[in-house]
Amino acid sequence: MFENNIREYLKKHNFESFRPKVVLFDMDGTLYNSMPNHAQAWQEAMKSFGLDMSEADAYATEGMRGVETIRNMVREQWGRDIGETEAQKMYNVKGKLFHQMPLAPVFDGVLGIMKKIKDSGLTIGVVTGSAQKLLFQRLVDDFHDYLDPKNIITAYSNKRGKPAPDPFLSGLRLTGNYKPWEGIVVENAPMGVKSGVAAQIFTIAINTGPLPDQTLIDEGANLIFPAMTAFSDVWDEFFNDANQT
Q1: What are the pLDDT digits (tens) for 48-92?
Q2: Could you tell me the CA-to-CA distances from 6 to 16, 167, 177, 204 in Å, in that order?
Q3: CB neighbours (10 Å) of residue 193?
Q4: 14 and 116 Cβ atoms separated by less than 8 Å
Q5: Could you tell me the pLDDT band of residue 180, with boundaries at 50, 70 and 90?
Q6: Can you spell out the DSSP letters for 42-84?
C-alpha cells in the first residue's frame, strides 16, 4: 500500500533503504488541538503592537520560532529590523494570552499511535518551535509512558528554526544519532513539512487545520492523512512496508 511512496522517497534522496528507528512529532496542531488558541492569541497580541496578522498567517507560519515570525512581520509591515530581545518581549505577550485560554486537548489517535510505535521498538521524539516551557512540562506529563524528556527538541535547541532542517536534524542526533533514512517526521504545518523534507527525513503530514492538502503536498510531504487516527489505523502496514522496501 505504501511501497510506491517509500520508493519515491528513496529515489529522491538516493538512499538505499528506509529503516525507521525514531518518529519525530511536531507538537502544536499535531499532538494537541491547540492551533485555534494559538491563532487567536497571535492575532490579539500582534494587534496590540499595531501589526496585522490573520488566522491564515498564523497557520501558514506555524512551526517557526515565534521571535522569527515576529521579526519577519515587522520587516514586512514596518520596513525595519528588530532584535531578538524586542521580538521576545512581543512574543511573551502572545504566550501570556495563549496560557489564559482553555487547555487544548490531545488529538484522538495520538496515544494509540505512540503505543504502536513503542511496541514496534522505535524511539519517540518531539520537535517543536515553541519556547513556552509550561508546554514542555505538559508533554512530559501527558506522554510519560512513551516520551523521554531528553527527546524534546524546542526553540532553545537551535539558532535556526523551521523551515530550516536544523530542528529535525537535531531531533535525529539527540534521540540516538540516527540517520535521515532512520527517521519519520509527523507534522501538520507547511513550515514543519518543509523542515522535515529539507532534513531528508520521510515526512508524514496530518492535515488538522484549514489549509488545503495541496499546500502540504507542495512542501514535499511523502504521505498525508486527514487525522492522526487515520495514520494510527495503518501504522502496522506502513511499518511493515518500510522494512521490506
Answers
A1: 999 999 988 998 888 788 899 999 999 999 999 999 999 999 999
A2: 11, 23, 22, 11
A3: 28
A4: no
A5: very high
A6: HHHHHHHTT----HHHHHHTTTS-HHHHHHHHHHHHHSS---H
Residue 159 makes CB contacts below 8 A (sequence gap 6+) with 166
Question: What whole-number distance in Å separates Cα of residue 203 and Cα of residue 181?
Answer: 11
Least Cα distance to 130 among 105, 107, 177, 98 occurs for 98
CA 76 to chain CA centroid, Å, is: 25
Which of 49, 136, 154 lies closest to 92, judged by CA?
49
Q: How many Cβ atoms are within 10 Å of 151's Cβ, its own excluded?
A: 19
Q: What's this model's pTM, rounded to 2 decimal places?
A: 0.89
Which residue's entry shows cell 535556526?
160
Closest CA to 208 of 191, 189, 185, 182: 189
